[in-house]
Amino acid sequence: EYKFDGARVQIHKRGNNVRVFSRRLTEVTISIPEIVNEVINGVNAEEAILDGEVIAVGANGRPLPFQDLMRRFTKVKNIEEEMKRIPLKLYLFDVIYLNGKQLVDRPYSERWSELERIVEKVELAPRIVTSSINEAEGFMKRAVEEGHEGVVAKALNSPYIPGARGNLWFKLKTADYLDLVIVGAQWGYGRRTGWLSDYFLAALDEETGNYEIVGKTFKGLTDEEFEEMTRKLLELKVEEEDNTVWVKPEIVVEVAYSEIQRSPKYKSGFALRFARITRIRSDKSPFEVDTLRRVRELYQKQQEKKGILKGGF
Question: Which residue of 8, 171, 201, 273 is most buried, as measured by CB atoms within 10 A?
Fold first, then answer.
């Protein structure tokens, strides 16, 4: 399926009563009335819980930046004006409850068939079912050319596992990204004086429940974002030593990088090379960040591509 640069939503429908929730369980129904109406008029089911993604679209039909979308999700006033300024588009890709029946244990292929049966006027996520590498690569290329992030590969027999990553669904993007949480920051200097602008980025160690630093960066944010980030981090401050402020792990960011390196600098044993924040993931909780195990796996794959490692890690 296409991997959208949007906001994941869970939609609850009972008759003409529709409620929409973000991935952090925040109700956003009032902010996106056009999505509510689309579901009322386009989903032929008395009761359903649907999974999908909302993106913001420009006049040319291509996706707008994620930050524009987040402005829509947080607006509760002047919504009609915002609807004209930042139009939204809904793509559905799963149904987990339908007319009294829970579908989470049913295979993905069956859930998709049910989704196709009940959805009449809402767009489904573009997808192909294939065993051909060339066909899959062509499909991913098309997704990227249309302005999307890449694709999500799903096993046809996969159940729906809430809150778990598993190995039956995985993302394929054209660039390397990790979702990480900020655990500390250093005060900037020069043009960045007065801002907490150099961020310690951490992954979740599932074995201990701790967040372990895997990199540090001052790149990617605008001056306005530096200022806002400083305010938020100071509210989360746990302690301050020298030039560093350590904070509660609350703010999630998407981080691009060129390479994962082995490093004794951090307890994790890893460090990201040329890390850069690509967006602030206000839609994600710190429990949804990438794990240290994921970092290890990416490092191993990276080394295998180089021909350095053979076999297990």
Answer: 201
